[in-house]
């Protein structure tokens, strides 16, 4: 099942990239991705977000560079025109990169609302063999989607319900991942314990 796939993915420490750039999906994608602490694209898909990942990271670096500049005295010495140019550049970068600024590796899967509108994202994920989970309406081709969720991708109610259910499963998987990390970090019983000679002799007798 699709929900089991997402749960297992999250339980292995992988993350899902949420994509929904159509008006009806934008805020839902942003809210639900944040709820499970995953990355998201809700404004515009930048070509190469997956297939040209290093270039996207350079754009992220530029965004952080501008933000750091604003905090330094040097920024105050710039002219109004220079400040305005940097501000416009920052706004543009923020708009396109907002949900993926901290994404430093490729996702384990991509969740998409409206594969027709997000056709570039579909192509890039297919090229890299990244599994796609998507809400697929009757006017869309499901052939290139690994996990198809039949649904109305124009209905806010439908988008919210389906996305919320997927996120619930991701959260379950994340809980399992955190529990497994806790178990691994706990010292094993008797690990590193040095026995006295009497204790060692006692164990040998018991055996």
Describe the structure concisely for a colleague.
The chain has 207 residues and is of the alpha/beta class. The chain has eight helices and five strands.
How would you characterize this protein structure?
- With 207 residues, the chain is of the alpha/beta class.
- It has two domains: 119 residues, 3-Layer(aba) Sandwich (Rossmann fold), CATH 3.40.50; 55 residues, Helix Hairpins (Orthogonal Bundle).
- Helices cover 54% and strands 10% of the residues.
- The protein has eight helices and five strands.
- A five-stranded parallel sheet has the order 2-1-3-4-5, sandwiched between helices.
- Helix 2 runs parallel beside helix 7 and helix 3 packs across helix 5.
- The longest helix has 30 residues.
- It is globular and about 60 Å long.
- The termini are far apart.
- The model has no long low-confidence stretch (mean pLDDT 89).
């Amino acid at each position: 099942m699709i929900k089991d796939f997402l749960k297992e993915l999250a339980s292995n420490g992988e993350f899902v990239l949420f994509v929904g750039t159509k008006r009806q999906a934008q805020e839902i994608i942003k809210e639900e991705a944040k709820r499970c602490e995953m990355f998201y694209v809700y404004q515009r898909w930048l070509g190469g977000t997956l297939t040209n990942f290093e270039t996207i990271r350079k754009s992220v670096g530029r965004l952080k560079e501008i933000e750091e500049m604003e905090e330094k005295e040097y920024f105050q010495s710039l002219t109004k025109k220079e400040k305005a140019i940097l501000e416009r550049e920052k706004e543009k970068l923020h708009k396109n990169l907002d949900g993926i600024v901290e994404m430093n590796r490729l996702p384990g899967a991509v969740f998409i609302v409206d594969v027709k509108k997000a056709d570039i994202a579909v192509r890039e994920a297919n090229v890299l063999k990244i599994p796609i989970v998507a809400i697929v309406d009757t006017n869309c081709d499901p052939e290139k989607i690994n996990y198809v969720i039949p649904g109305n991708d124009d209905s806010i109610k439908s988008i919210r319900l389906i996305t919320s259910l997927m996120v619930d499963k991701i959260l379950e998987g994340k809980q399992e991942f955190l529990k497994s990390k806790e178990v691994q970090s706990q010292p094993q019983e008797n690990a590193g314990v040095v026995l006295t000679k009497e204790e060692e002799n006692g164990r040998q007798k018991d055996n």
